[in-house]
């Protein structure tokens, strides 16, 4: 991806000459990343050389599904559901899943190859989306922010990925740095569980920049003084890099584990120990919703587990995904409501408030379909964290750079609202 033209302050940070206390301009950064240079039309021959081919084996399919139970069965068959319509769903299916869908149990209404789907969506080349941050650019920006705000910021790795990349966490706390224990109520924001959901990296990354830019505002200053804030923009850097490495989007979802059948990847958001690999997850390794050989089999989900269990102060959490313009809360892996009525009402009220700020619909996750092994289900069940899944907006996984300003700005409002209730989530009742 194209390098961002940085301001003098950020350039200073890049060469490690930022002075203590120097401010970080969110407004300037947002302006820079949403200013995209004109892209010349790609050479047709080059386009053919980098587009996914039918040999990729996956199809974009539309399958009849009358309700959430039919949708759940399709997930278990390995369909990666992306869009939900009144009586059908659409998503990605590999060879194994296509074989199951060909049985009498399912009605396939249409199908097209990945190249055909990519052409229909009109998004083929990451060059057109140079404003988005790849792994190196994300890490560089995190380092710059930490260096520019040493009084309140620190940066550390919560673990390594399958391919050995660090999973970086930016911490904002006025009195504790790095991995030091804090008794302040904690808020956690995680992006990019799923590789192709690049917008889910941008929102938490730009949230960090906004907090630094507004650190002297009365309310933000209070949150920084009284809370323990953690931002992990890119949990799955291996997958995110794989999705763009050919010069064409690959619609890749999982991490980069090598499976027993030599296929690649586990769906990290089916790998948590919450009704692991029951409803709504696939046991077939080639599936996009493959739950893995066991719960927490993956280094990325293990890193989140260790991180969460070591921080008993965590109270609230957002896991960013795309795309649907929705806010989801537990349970996702069960039809049942969470048993604690007080907690349930807090989830409903907090979700509704964030929904008003974003324009997203807020509701219980399993109303969409049942999907087990979910990170937010696990965070609430294991640690009592008020954990929300944000399905960010857009008309596809690659909505373009023009969406950034609106999506980032209104999701920052929701993220800041969550900070306002982190000290006591029950205050909303």
Describe this structure in words.
The radius of gyration is 21 Å and the shape is globular. Strand 10, helix 12 and strand 11 (361-364) form a beta-alpha-beta unit. The strands form two sheets. Strands 5-6-8-7-9-12-10-11 form an eight-stranded mixed β-sheet, sandwiched between helices. It has a four-stranded antiparallel β-sheet with strand order 2-3-1-4. With 429 residues, it is an alpha/beta fold. Helix content is 35%, strand content 17%. The chain is built from 14 helices and twelve strands. It starts with 7 loop residues before the first helix and ends in a 7-residue tail after the last helix.
Task: Please summarize what this structure is.
This protein is α/β, with parallel strands linked by helices and 429 residues long. The chain is 35% helix and 17% strand. It has 14 helices and twelve strands.
Give me the CATH fold name of the largest domain. Answer: Aminopeptidase
Mean pLDDT: 87
Structural class of the helix and strand makeup? Answer: alpha/beta
Annotation field: number of helices = 14
Q: What are the segments in which pLDDT stays under 50 over at least 5 consecutive residues?
A: 1-23, 36-55
Series of H and E elements: HHHEHEEHEHHEEEHHEHHEEHEHEH
Summarize the biggest pleated sheet: 8 strands, mixed
Find the CATH superfamily of the largest domain: Zn peptidases
Query: Judging by the overall fold, what is the CATH architecture of the largest domain?
Result: 3-Layer(aba) Sandwich
Q: Which word captures the global form?
A: globular
User: What percentage of residues falls in helices of 4 or more residues?
Assistant: 25-40%
Q: Radius of gyration, rounded? A: 21 Å
Question: Strand portion, in percent?
Answer: 15-25%
Q: Count the E strands.
A: 12
Strand line-up in the sheet with most strands: 5-6-8-7-9-12-10-11
Integer count of domains:
2
CATH class of the largest domain: Alpha Beta
Distance between the termini: 45 Å
């Amino acid at each position: 991806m194209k390098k961002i033209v940085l301001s003098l302050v950020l350039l200073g940070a890049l060469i490690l000459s930022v002075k203590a206390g120097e401010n970080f301009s969110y407004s300037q950064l947002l302006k820079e990343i949403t200013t995209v240079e004109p892209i010349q039309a790609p050479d047709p021959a080059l386009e053919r050389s980098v587009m996914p081919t039918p040999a990729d084996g996956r199809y974009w399919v539309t399958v009849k599904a009358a309700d959430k139970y039919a949708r759940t069965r399709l997930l278990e068959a390995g369909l990666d559901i992306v869009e939900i319509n009144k009586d059908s769903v659409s998503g990605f299916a590999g060879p194994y899943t296509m074989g199951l869908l060909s049985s009498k149990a399912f009605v396939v209404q249409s199908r097209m190859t990945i190249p055909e789907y990519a052409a229909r969506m009109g998004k083929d080349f990451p060059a057109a989306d140079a404003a988005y941050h790849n792994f190196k650019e994300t890490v560089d920006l995190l380092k710059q922010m930490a260096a520019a705000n040493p009084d309140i910021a620190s940066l550390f790795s919560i673990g390594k990925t399958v391919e050995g990349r660090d999973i970086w966490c930016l911490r904002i706390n006025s009195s504790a740095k790095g991995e030091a224990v804090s008794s302040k109520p904690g808020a956690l924001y995680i992006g990019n569980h799923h590789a192709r959901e690049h917008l889910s990296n941008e929102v938490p990354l730009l949230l960090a920049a906004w907090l630094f830019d507004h650190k002297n505002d009365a309310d933000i200053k209070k949150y920084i003084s009284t809370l323990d804030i953690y931002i992990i923009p890119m949990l799955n850097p291996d997958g995110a890099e794989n999705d763009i490495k050919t010069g064409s989007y690959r619609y890749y979802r999982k991490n980069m584990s090598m499976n027993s059948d030599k296929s690649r990847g586990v769906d990290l958001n089916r790998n948590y120990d919450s009704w692991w690999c029951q409803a709504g997850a696939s046991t077939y390794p080639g599936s996009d919703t493959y739950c893995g050989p066991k719960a927490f089999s993956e280094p990325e989900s293990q890193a989140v587990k260790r991180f969460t269990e070591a921080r008993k102060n965590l109270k609230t959490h957002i896991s960013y995904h795309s795309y649907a313009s929705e806010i989801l809360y537990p349970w996702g892996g069960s039809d049942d409501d969470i048993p604690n009525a007080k907690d349930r009402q807090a989830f409903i009220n907090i979700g509704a408030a964030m929904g008003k700020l974003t324009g997203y619909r807020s509701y219980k996750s399993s109303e969409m379909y049942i999907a087990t092994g979910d990170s937010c289900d696990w965070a609430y069940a294991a640690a009592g964290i008020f954990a929300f899944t944000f399905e960010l907006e857009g008309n596809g996984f690659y909505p373009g750079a023009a969406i950034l300003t609106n999506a980032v700005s209104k999701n920052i409002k929701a993220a800041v609202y969550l900070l306002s209730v982190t000290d006591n989530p029950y205050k909303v009742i």
